[in-house]
Amino acid sequence: MLDKSPFSTISTLLDERVEGRSLPAGLYTREDVFQADMDVFFRKHWIYVGPECDVPEPGDATVIDIAGSSLIMLRDDDGEVRVFHNVCRHRGARILDAGTTVVSKLVCPYHQWTYELTGELAYAPHMGKDFDKTCNSLKPVNFRNIGGLIHVCLSDDPPADIAALEAVGRERLLPYDLKNTRVAHQTDLIENGNWKLTMENNRECYHCSANHPELCVSFIDLDFGFDPESLAPEDRETAARHEAMYAAKTAEWEAQGHPSAAIEQLTNCATNFRTQRLIISGAGESQTPDATAAVSKLLGIGRKDLGDMHLWGHNSWHHFMGDHIITAMVIPLGPDKTLLRMKWLVHKDAVEGVDYDFDKLTSVWIATNEQDGSLVERSHAGVSDPAYVPGMYSPFTETQLNWFAGWYVDRMRAHGY
């Protein structure tokens, strides 16, 4: 079957999507679809852009480039996080360069227009006595600080259902005290594939046992679905015992005041997210080579027996453990290029070489990301092949992918495609 997507409208491609199957090739590969994706999913929906601890002190600022926009996230003199467009109100020059910095005021290098950290224009030389500085403040960006995770929406009409994520996130992330963490390490990995393939790959673990030996030390493959008919009788018994253990452990955590059951807002919504407290395999403490804690100085309430609080959105995924946090942001760069930015957060007072070993902290997810990058590249090459036809998702291990594809089509339709 030949792929007719080069000659189809985006609407036709959306019509061609079949329930239970992957998307038509053009929805992964075409430039016009990529531009539509950027408009719909990265300008009109809430997106994760980084942790609050990226700007730990007043005057700290960092620049995030996403969806054609450059954003300044900073902490003002009163200790409040703010997000502005990185565009001078004079003639549009960039105010800050990429990366992190410390500032007392925001000064445009071009003509020295100067802004307070609250965004007000403080100084604009040679503009005349009738010039009104109050009309030329930096343009703010809609944002929400959800338990220490900063989400923004570039639209003036952001989806209201972010409220569900706020309510869940603030409660579930409270024990980890993200405000008192710091970034111990960051990696920027370019994956040679479409951003939806990156997200699909993260939303299933069908591939994990064959591709992620490091991660599978702490992950439990039964948690991610299985076909009971394919299991031997003894394996079915093992699965049943595991499910009973999970139910008991979830009930125990919740009785202690730590919400743990799965919460899913994945269909019939704008803001797509899922969260659940997962049991960590083996030693049960952290996602490290031996599943023991990497950091002796624990986060927040100081417990390393609360498993892995997992949270994902449509451009992010996170794992919260007692000793450290993994936070990942997906930034599309083109139809076939995606930036995966991952950060490892530890207690703000934790010292490398004293409180933790760097390799133990980072090696599992560095290896996992490299492995996933190769899989995404392999997938993109396949969907770009004329022989590709949308394949059937496993009803046992890829249900989340089916929901993601349906949500994607629904949101494109909601925005006129």
From TrEMBL:
MF terms (GO), sorted A to Z: dioxygenase activity
CDD domains: RHO_alpha_C_GbcA-like, Rieske_RO_Alpha_N
Keywords recorded for this protein, A-Z: 2Fe-2S, Dioxygenase, Iron, Iron-sulfur, Metal-binding, Oxidoreductase
InterPro entries per UniProt: Rieske_2Fe-2S, Rieske_2Fe-2S_sf, Ring_hydroxy_dOase_asu_C_dom, Rng_hydr_dOase-A
Top-level taxonomic group: Bacteria
Enzyme class of the recorded protein, top EC level: oxidoreductase
Cofactor: Fe cation
The enzyme's E.C. designation: 1.14.13.-
Rieske domain segment(s): 47-152
The protein's name in its UniProt record: Aromatic ring-hydroxylating dioxygenase subunit alpha
Protein's organism: Paracoccus niistensis
